[in-house]
Design a protein that fits this description.
This is 4-hydroxy-tetrahydrodipicolinate reductase. NAD(+) binds at residues 10-15, 36, 99-101, 123-126. Catalyzes the conversion of 4-hydroxy-tetrahydrodipicolinate (HTPA) to tetrahydrodipicolinate. This protein is of the alpha/beta class and 274 residues long. It folds into two domains: 4-122 and 237-272, NAD(P)-binding Rossmann-like Domain (Rossmann fold); 128-234, 2-Layer Sandwich (Dihydrodipicolinate Reductase, domain 2). The chain is 36% helix and 24% strand. The strands form two sheets. A seven-stranded parallel beta sheet has the order 3-2-1-4-5-6-12, sandwiched between helices. It has a five-stranded mixed beta sheet with strand order 8-9-7-10-11. A hairpin with a 2-residue loop joins strand 10 and strand 11.
């Protein structure tokens, strides 16, 4: 059986290294490209040198050339880098898994436009556990209703550049949608000073940044005399990488049509194949 050919963007980053390691460990996958931007000190180095066992794939800035031999690119970089990869993936007929967060509404339109000509999956969190979390949040929001105040708290490492996290925003969107609202109409992103009583129906967000926190997310449904908390805490990045690789396998399946997919599609496919 032929192995799925994987390219990793941002190969020397925290997620990039985990993706390289997990790709090399998977018998059905082959690492064919490891990308870094021009000027990176890692260019020319073996992508697996950090593991102490070189894999023979040199880190390159030549994304167009590298993608010609790939079936799926996994991109956990920055918005500008991901957007630059869109036309390259289209030209190479290469599926694209995007874990980058911080896109504006206009930038998301660019992802949608690219998805008209290639299979593309964007998710602010690739964890299969977070997909389950989203289902639980929708169920709780529907059953508890507006009588329960909703607050979302997220924590990440000091290097994260966007806030709230994409996962926290997705949590808010799921809860708002389940209650017939739009998040943009009910979100409260900051509180300071004399704020007055809490306005009913709002979804509040609180953000923590510090140390090496990989990612903690909690939704609190606060009622009279009780509080329900639904949480997901990451102790390693390995489940993000495994989820991204599952997404790559999903997108690269024979006959997969162009379009923008979500992790819920991956989970449904895994369940159907179980």
């Amino acid at each position: 059986m032929s192995r799925l050919k994987i390219a990793v963007a941002g190969a020397t980053g925290r997620m990039g290294r985990m993706l390289v390691e997990q790709t090399l460990a998977a018998p059905d996958l082959e690492l064919v490209a490891a990308l870094e931007p021009a000027g990176s000190s890692a260019l020319g180095q073996d992508a697996a040198a950090f593991l102490g066992r070189p894999c023979g794939v040199a880190i390159t800035e030549d994304a167009p050339g590298a993608l010609n031999g790939a079936q799926a690119l996994i991109d956990f970089t920055r918005v500008s880098g991901t957007l630059a990869h869109l036309p390259m993936c289209q030209a190479a007929h290469c599926a694209l898994v995007v874990g980058t967060t911080g896109f504006s509404a206009d930038e998301m339109v660019q992802l949608d436009a690219a998805a008209q000509s290639l299979p593309l999956l964007w998710a602010p969190n690739m964890s299969l556990g977070v997909s389950v979390l989203m289902n639980l949040l929708a169920q709780a929001a529907q059953q508890l209703g507006p009588a329960y105040d909703v607050e979302i708290v997220e924590a990440h490492h000091r290097h994260k550049v966007d806030a709230p996290s994409g996962t926290a925003l997705q949590m808010g969107e799921v809860i708002a949608r389940a209650q017939g609202q739009r998040l943009s109409d009910v979100a409260t992103f900051a509180r300071e000073g004399h704020t007055g009583p809490r306005e009913a129906g709002r979804i509040g967000f609180a953000v923590v940044r510090g140390g090496d926190i990989i990612g903690d997310h909690t939704a609190m449904f606060c009622g009279e005399g009780e509080r329900i908390e639904i949480s997901h805490r990451s102790s390693s990045r390995v489940h993000y990488a495994q989820g991204a690789l599952a997404a790559a396998r999903f997108l690269a399946q024979p006959g997969r049509r162009p379009g923008r997919y979500a992790m819920a599609d991956v989970v449904a496919d895994l369940q159907a194949r179980a």
